[in-house]
Amino acid sequence: MSVLRPLDKLPGLNTATILLVGAEDALLQQLADSMLKEDCASELRVHLAKSLPLPSNVNRPRIDLVVFVINLHSKYSLQNVEESLRHVDAAFFLGKVCFLATGAGRDSHCSVHRNTVGKLAHTYRSPLLFCDLEVDAFRASLAQRLVRMLQICAGHVPGVSALNLLSLLRSSESPPPEEL
């Protein structure tokens, strides 16, 4: 078991690989299925993990994008992501990591506040997406967006890099919580 590094494996030819990390197996599987239905010029690979680190004895491809999924209805989900973040190399945070908060639609049932997740994303200088994965239309829209982000992070979109994408996503965000 080791730290996940962005360039520890050679890239596959015309292959893009995303790693979804979260405690909600059923929701992650539904999101993965939605992503695989999307039209993609590259061969799309979706890997699921409850937490990091990944086992070192498994032969896995290079990971192009890591998505940490936090269910706002579960403090365990947030704790799991926070513990997993320790196993990610700092170079991954240069545009190859994003956070996804799900369950924000029912605010009264949330046990994790949105600001907590926002501060976590701000701390790691990574984009934060909100989506209710239980709603098919929202999940399909998010899958489309993640596939496009993945293609960029894998280097399959000419003239756009993961850092370009990060700067575009960061400039469209609201100011950090401490500036409000």
What report would you give on this structure?
It is a single chain. With 180 residues, this protein is an alpha/beta fold. Helices cover 34% and strands 17% of the residues. The chain contains five helices and five strands, in the order βαββαβαβαα. The longest helix has 18 residues, at 136-153. The chain is globular and about 45 Å long.
- Briefly note the structural class of the backbone: alpha/beta
Strand content: 15-25%
Can you tell me the residue ranges where pLDDT is under 50 for at least 5 consecutive residues? none
Number of strands: 5
The helix fraction, in percent, is: 25-40%
Strand order of the largest sheet: 2-1-3-4-5
Oligomerization category of the chains in this entry: single chain
Task: Determine the N-to-C terminus distance.
Answer: 40 Å
- Compute the number of helices: 5
Radius of gyration: 15 Å
Mean pLDDT: 89
Sketch the topology as an H/E string, one letter per element.
EHEEHEHEHH
Largest sheet: 5 strands, parallel
Note the overall shape.
globular
Overview in brief:
The protein is built from five helices and five strands, in the order βαββαβαβαα.
Provide keyphrases for this structure.
single chain; 180 residues; 5-stranded parallel beta sheet; 5 helices; 5 strands; 34% helix; 17% strand
Q: What is this structure's SSE topology?
A:
Elements lengths: L14 E7 L3 H13 L5 E7 L15 E7 L3 H11 L11 E6 L11 H10 L4 E3 L5 H18 L8 H10 L9
Parallel strand pairs: 1-2, 1-3, 3-4, 4-5
